[in-house]
Amino acid sequence: MKIKTPLLACAVALAAVTAPFAVAQQDTINDYVRAMVDGFADVDETLVGDIQLEELEIDASAEFVFDIDPEKKYFVYSACDDDCFDIDLYGQDADEDLVDADDEDDDATPILVVMPGASGDELHVIVELVDCETETCVVGVGLYEADD
């Protein structure tokens, strides 16, 4: 089968035109999820590092590791894009002992609280996508230090 050059050229041109829109749409979703995560923080809480994003399929999980001061109190906020119905959030210390969990049903905005001394100097945060309307959803996780 021979593909005609004009048809191939049209397909390449269409891909070149639509690709930037797909990238722009993904950037918009990422910015939306970051804004949702950041919106949970109180004025007396400071973001540690950056809000982490991951695109997950249903029943998949991602792990984020944060270095923390064991003498401080932390909050971990998480959010998902509009297609998401339920994500679970687990905080563990370096020995994989559970520090806190938010695995309520129908919760797309779970929160963890890490009290001073509960985790040592390393916090492992696992986010699991439980239910999503689409094949994948974007989830975000932010670690916030409570001001003294």
The CATH C-level class name:
Mainly Beta
> What CATH architecture do you see?
Sandwich
Proportion of strand residues: 35-45%
Counting H and I runs of at least 4 residues, what is the number of helices? Answer: 1
What is the CATH topology?
Jelly Rolls
Low-confidence stretches: 7-23
* Overall domain count: 1
| SSE series | HEEEEEEEEE
What is the secondary structure topology, with strand pairs?
Blueprint: H1 5-40, E1 45-47, E2 52-57, E3 61-67, E4 74-80, E5 84-92, E6 98-102, E7 111-114, E8 122-132, E9 136-146
Antiparallel strand pairs: 1-9, 2-9, 3-8, 4-7, 4-9, 5-6, 5-8
Core attributes:
five-stranded antiparallel β-sheet; alpha+beta; 24% helix; Jelly Rolls; 1 helix; four-stranded antiparallel β-sheet; 9 strands; globular; single chain; 148 residues
Summarize the structure.
This protein is of the alpha+beta class and 148 residues long.
Describe this structure in words.
This protein has 148 residues and is α+β, with helices and mostly antiparallel strands. The protein has a single domain, classed as Jelly Rolls, CATH 2.60.120. The protein is 24% helix and 43% strand. The strands form 2 sheets. Strands 1, 2, 4, 7 and 9 form a 5-stranded antiparallel beta sheet that branches. Strand 5 and strand 6 form a beta hairpin. The longest helix is centred in the first third of the chain and has 36 residues. About 11% of the residues have low confidence.
